[in-house]
Amino acid sequence: MRKGIFIGLAFIVGVVLTYFVMNKLSGNNTSEQSHVIAYQIERMNKMIVAEQSYSEIYTHSSKKSLPGLHNLWSSDKKVTLLVNAKAQATYDLSKMDVKVDSVNKVIRIKSIPPVDIKVFPDVSFYEMDQSVFNKFEKEDLNGIKKRAVAQVEQKIDRTSLKQEAHQQLIKNLEDIYLLAKIYGWKVEDESIYKNELLNRLK
After folding, report:
1. Nearest Cα residue to 31 out of 20, 19, 42, 23
2. Where are any strands of DSSP class E within the chain?
3. Helix (H) or strand (E) segment spanning residue 79
4. Could you tell me the strand order of the sheet in which 116-129 lies?
5. Closest Cα to residue 30, out of 173, 186, 175, 185?
6. Which H, E and C letters describe 121-138, residue by residue?
7. pTM of the predicted protein model
8. Distance (Å, whole) CA 71 – CA 188
9. Mean pLDDT along residues 78-104
10. pLDDT, tens digit, for every residue of 26-45?
11. In this predicted model, what pLDDT tens digit does every residue of 171-190 receive, in sequence order?
């Protein structure tokens, strides 16, 4: 009789101990997963950059003559500029609003920063020809530089630049979904890219 009671108590204690040990291990495992996921997302918090380079030669010329004598005499001036420009489309993922809920095993993507397009021009004077009667003033040269840069900016293919950056962004967001799948977590995506990502991962 006593032996049966002892065996029964031993079984109950074993079950209780097993429960607590497994529960502890499970909790540690979830915590570890949370740290791994948070670390991997932190590694994704980088600047995504799509870049294009442009080069343009811009020439400006003008004449100065005495009233009524332009057919007999004129003083010409001419300047040629070399414009190198770098255009960038960027997503700053350090500004991505994403939360890791280790209790419910959920990764919540709240928002993604919009694409930002910037142009970095580098203007140098390639050639300048002027006379003492018709010189370039500082204001003239500044205006010519602005027009030269504006001409290059008009040639930037912003559509393809955005598309290239967009593809890189989607690849980074896919990594979050795949990471969640590996650990059996869920992704709650509130960003504008949710449907596109779900279609790609089907």
Report:
1. 23
2. 47-64, 75-92, 97-101, 106-111, 116-129, 186-189
3. strand 75-92
4. 47-64, 75-92, 116-129
5. 185
6. EEEEEEEEECECCECCCH
7. 0.70
8. 76
9. 90
10. 444 677 778 778 878 787 77
11. 989 988 998 888 899 999 99
